[in-house]
Amino acid sequence: MSQSRVWHPFTQHALEPAIPEIVRTEGAYLHRADGTRVLDAISSWWVVTHGHRHPRIVKAIETTAASLDQIIFAGFTHEPAERLAEALVNLAPPGLDWVFYSDSGSTSVEVALKMALGYFRNIGAPRSRIVVMEHGYHGDTIGTMSVGARGVFNAAYEPLLFEVDTIPFPAAGREQETLDRFEAVSRDQRAAALIVEPLVLGAGGMLMYPARVLAELKKIADASGTLLIADEVMTGWGRTGTLFACEQANISPDILCTSKGLTGGTIPLAATLATDAIFQAHYSTDRKRTFFHSSSYTANPIACAAALANVEIWNDEPVAERITALGALQAAGLRRFSDNPFFTDTRATGTIAALDLRAASPGYLAEIGPKLRAFFLDQGLLVRPLGNVLYLLPPYCITGDELDRLYDTIEEAGERFGSKP
C-alpha cells in the first residue's frame, strides 16, 4: 500500500507504528492483509453484537440496496424506517412512543439534548441546565463533549462548551452522595435533564453501578420535573445482560439514545426515542415550535433495513441465551484474578468484564496503554485498554476457548507490565 493520507481517530500518528490493513471480517475475527487474523475482543469499539457480517444483516443490506438508496426524510418516508420505528417502540421501555433517526451515537445524544431544551421552551417553562454524571462520556460533538467529562480530550475546545451541573459517580459505599447531590441540583427547577449511561460508564473506565441507583435517580427526576436521558448507545442491545440496561432498574427514561448495536454493528444508524409528551410539545400549527434538527442521511433506508434484520435476529435466534452464557463465562474468567497481585477491581455487568492493572503510571495517557495494546495485537488479539483499565466487550459469538485465550494473555500481561502493591 502506498503512503496513507488517512487521519485516524484517537491516534497520535507521530507515535504509532504502521497501521495494519484489514481485508475481511467474519464472526469474532478481523483478517489482516498479511493473512493473519485478530480476535476482536472489543467488538470493534463496542458496535458488533452477533458477530461480524451476520448473513441475515448482510442479505438485508444487499436486498434493500437493489431498490432504495438515500431519500430526503423531510417530507418523505419509506417502509424500512416505518417498520423499524414500530419495532423499536415495541422493544424499548414503555412510554417511548416516538423515534427520531440520526446517524451516530453522538448525534443521537445531541438530538436528545435539543429535545429536552425544546420541550421546556415550548411548554412555556424554559429550563437551561443539563445535569451529568462524573466520568461520563457521550460523544465528541460540541454538545456531547459539554455533557461529558472534561480533560485532555476536550481541553482545546473548552471555549465552545456549555456549563453543566455534575453529580458524583455512585462509587460503592457512596451511592447516597450521588442521590443527594442530584436532589440538591434539581430542586431549583432549572435542570432540563439528567443524562446518564445506565449501569456502565464506558469510556470513563468501564465504571459500574447498581440498578437501584438508576431507579432512585429516576424517582428524583420525576419529583423535580427533570427529564431523564438514558444514553444506551453502548449499553443497549444486550451488553449489560438485558436488551436495554434501563430494564434492570425497571424504569422508562423520558428519552433514550441508541446506536452501535442497533444494526448489529454493520452500518451506521442511530435513533433517539422520546415520550409522547415531548413530541406533543413540538406538535403545533406554529412553525416556530418545529424540532429543528436533521442530517443529510437521516433514516437511511439501507441502514434501517440492517437494523430491522438485527431486530429479527433478536426475535428469531436465542440471543438472550447467548448473552447469559457469555456473561457467565466472563464472570468465570474474572475469578482467576481474585488473588492476582497485579490486578485490582475486577468487575462485570452482563457481557462486559473489566479489571485494573496495577501500574507505576496509571491513567489514560500513560505509556502503559499503548504498550498493552501492542502486546495484545502481537498475540493476535484486539484489546484496546483505557489506560491501565483492561476490558473485554466481545461479540456474542465468541467461544469459551477464545475467552480463555484472552484471559490467559491478560494474566501474561500482568506479569510483564504490572506492579505489585
TrEMBL record:
Residues that hold pyridoxal 5'-phosphate according to the record: G105, S106, D231, S295, S296
One Pfam family hit: Aminotran_3
GO cellular component: cytoplasm
Keywords assigned by UniProt, alphabetized: Amino-acid biosynthesis, Aminotransferase, Arginine biosynthesis, Biotin biosynthesis, Cytoplasm, Pyridoxal phosphate, S-adenosyl-L-methionine, Transferase
Keyword Amino-acid biosynthesis in record: yes
InterPro entries: Aminotrans_3, BioA, PyrdxlP-dep_Trfase, PyrdxlP-dep_Trfase_major, PyrdxlP-dep_Trfase_small
Binding site for substrate: W45, Y137, K260, S294, R384
Cofactor(s), by name: pyridoxal 5'-phosphate
UniProt subcellular location: Cytoplasm
Broad class of enzyme this protein falls into: transferase
EC number of the protein: 2.6.1.62
GO-annotated biological processes: biotin biosynthetic process; L-arginine biosynthetic process
GO terms for MF: adenosylmethionine-8-amino-7-oxononanoate transaminase activity; dethiobiotin synthase activity; pyridoxal phosphate binding
Catalyzed chemical reaction(s): (8S)-8-amino-7-oxononanoate + S-adenosyl-L-methionine = S-adenosyl-4-methylsulfanyl-2-oxobutanoate + (7R,8S)-7,8-diammoniononanoate
N6-(pyridoxal phosphate)lysine modifications at: K260
Site, as annotated: Participates in the substrate recognition with KAPA and in a stacking interaction with the adenine ring of SAM: F10
Pathway in which the depicted protein is active: Cofactor biosynthesis; biotin biosynthesis; 7,8-diaminononanoate from 8-amino-7-oxononanoate (SAM route): step 1/1
NCBIfam families associated with the record: bioA (TIGR00508), PRK05964.1 (NF004624)
Protein family membership: Belongs to the class-III pyridoxal-phosphate-dependent aminotransferase family. BioA subfamily.
Cross-referenced HAMAP family: BioA
Record's function text: Catalyzes the transfer of the alpha-amino group from S-adenosyl-L-methionine (SAM) to 7-keto-8-aminopelargonic acid (KAPA) to form 7,8-diaminopelargonic acid (DAPA). It is the only aminotransferase known to utilize SAM as an amino donor.
Subunit text: Homodimer.
Protein name: Adenosylmethionine-8-amino-7-oxononanoate aminotransferase
UniProt source species: Rhizobium loti (Mesorhizobium loti)
